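Troubleshooting entry. Yesterday's outputs looked truncated, so today I'm pasting the complete records for two proteins to confirm everything comes through intact. If either block looks cut off, that's the bug. Protein one:
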Amino acid sequence: MKKKIFTVMLCLAMVGAMLSGCQKKPESSEGSSSSSDSEPDKKPDTAPEDIKGSMEGVTLKVGTSGLFGPFSYYDADGKTLIGYDMDLLTDLQDILGFDIDGGVQAMDYSALTASLAEGKLDVGAAALCATDERKEVMNFTDIYCDSGQVVMINKEENPGIAEVDDLAEKKVAVEKGTASHIYATKNLEDSDIEVHDTITTAYESLEQGKVDAVIQDGPGAAFYIKTTEGTKLEVTGGEFNQGQAPYAVAVSKDCEYLDQINGALNMLKDDGTLDELYTKWCE
C-alpha cells in the first residue's frame, strides 16, 4: 500500500513539473527572449504579418515642415499638404492602421525638432536628417532617402562662385536646424552665415541679391528651380557632404511604436514603393 501511494505521489510531481515547464516565460527587463528548440520557426515581433494593422486604434501627433518641396509643401490651394513625405505617411497608415490627431501639423524645422525632443509630437516626417545631435533627443527609423548639399547662386549676380570652396568670405544663407546649417557652422568659418527660420526666406534673400549663396539639399534645390517661374537661381558645382543628409522618420523618445513604423518603412522599401515615391516627387 505504501508503495502504491509513493508511486502516485511521484507521478503527480512529474506532471506538475511538466505543466510548470509549459508556462510562458516572462519577458526580461531588456525585452529580449531566446527561442527554444521546440519553436524553430518562431517569427520576430517585427514580422510583416504582425505589423499589418498592428496600430489600429492608435492616434499619433505628427508634424512636418510644409515648406520643403518636394517632400512636404502646400498645393496650389495653399491649404493641402502634399509631397513625398505626405504620401509616405499615407502608406505607413495603410499598413499599420494608426490615425493622425487633427491632421499633420506644419511648422518650421526648429519648432518641429523641439516638439519631437519635448514629446509634444510623436512622429516627424519632413526630410529630417538623422544627425548625431538629433539622435540624442529623438529616435529615427532606417533611412528612406539620402542626399548631399549643393550651392545655389543668383546667376545674374554671381560673385565668382563655382563650388563650395568658393564660399570663403561670402554671405551664405541656410535654414535653421538643417544639415546645411550644421555643415556651414562646422566648415565655413570664414563665411558670413545668415540663418533663416524657413528655406523660403533664404531663397528670397538670394533672389534679391541680399546674400551670395544658399546651401540646400540637392532634391530641395532642384525642386525650387523647377517649380519657380522666372527664378534667377541655379545650382553651381556638384553635390558635397554626401551621406550626411540621410532622411528618416523621427519618433519621439516617449513613443513606443518605433519598431512598427520602421518595419512598415522597410516593407515599403522592399516592395519598391520608396523608389516609386522618389521617381514621382524628386525626378
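Protein two, checking that the full record survives here as well:
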Amino acid sequence: MTQTSVTFAGGRIFDGESLHDAMAARFREGVFAELVPESAVTKDEAAVDLKGDILTPGFVDLQVNGGGGVMFNESPDLDTLTIMAEAHRSLGCTAILPTLITDRPDKTTAAINAVRKALQAQIAGISGLHLEGPHLSVARKGAHDASLIRPMDDADFQQLLEAKTNIPVLKITVAPENVTPDQVSKLAQAGILVSLGHTDADFETCRRYAKAGASCVTHLFNAMSQLGNREPGLVGAVLNLGQLSSGVIADGIHVHPAVLQAAWKAKTGPGKIYLVSDSMAVAGTEETEFFLDGRRICRENGRLTLDNGTLAGADLDLTQAINVLVNAVGVDLEDALRAATSVPAGLIGLPSGLAPGVTRLEDINRITHDLRSLSRPAVELN
C-alpha cells in the first residue's frame, strides 16, 4: 500500500471492540482518521475494496520465542529481534514481546540489553520483553531445561527492577516454588507484569500470589497444576479469580477445543483469556526443524516436539488461533478478535483498536472473511 490517504470499504471493520458492517475506515496521511458509513465515501477518495474481508488492528502477541528461522535464546541480539519482528509482522502481529525461555544468567542479561537497544532503535513491532523463567518449577518444566531452573535471588530481583527502568513493558513468568510473595509484590509495584506459570502450586498458593500482585498466567492448562474436584490448582485459580488474565495456545493441540470452550464460559472477569502463539524459530518459514540449546525440535503435522515427544512451543500464528476459537471452540468472532488485539494490548498498556490519530496504516490487518476453514487464511499487512 503506497497511498498515505486511503479509505477501506466493502468488508467488515473491527475497531478493537466491535465489528461494523456497511462502514468504511478512512486513513489520512497514513494514520486512522474515522469510521464513516460506506454511503459517505466519495468518488474522488482513494478506496480499497475489502471484497468481504475483515479489517482489524494489528495483532498483539505476548509470547514469541522466535520466528523467521531464528530463536531469541540462541542469539539474543538486535539482529535476531529485527528478524523476529519482520517474520511476525508478515503473520499479522504489529506488537510482540520477544520471549526468552529459561537460560543462563548471561543470556538473560543479553536479552535485556538487546530489547533495550531495539526500543531505542524503534524496531517496529518490538514492544518489550517476556522472561519465561528461569524461576519455574522443575515438576512442570515442560520443554525448559531443568538444570537451568533456580530460585530468584537478590541479584535476579535487582536486575529485573533495573531492567524495568529501560524497558517499559516487562513481563516475567514465575512459579511460586522459586519466588516469594514479597518478591512478586515488589516487582508488581514496580510495574512489572508478573505471570504465574510452569508451576505445580495449589489453588490457595496461587490465590496468595495473585493477592501479592501476580495478574497474569502463562499458557492456560499447559505446564501447570490442573483443575481437580478437590484441588482446583492454577487452572481453577485462573477461572475463579477475576484479577487474573491468561494467555492460551489455541491450536487445537495444546488444549482440546472442548476444554477451551468450558474455560472460556467459566472465566470470571474482569480478567480475560487472550491468545498467544508461543511461536518458535519456524514461524513465518517453511523450515521443518530447529535447535534450542543443542536440542532438536521437529515440526510435523502442526506440532513442534522434542525428540522425546514433549511439546516445545507451537506451530501457530494468531490468525489460525482466531480460526480455532471461532470454528472449533465456538467463540463469538468479536471476542476472538479482541483476544488477539485489544485484550493483550490492554494488559501491557498499548493503545488498542483503531485509535484516531494513533493507528498507522501499516499497523492494520486484512483477514479473509471466510473463517469456516481451520487452515491459515491469508493475512495482508497494509
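Both blocks look complete. Sanity check on protein two: The chain has a mean pLDDT of 93.
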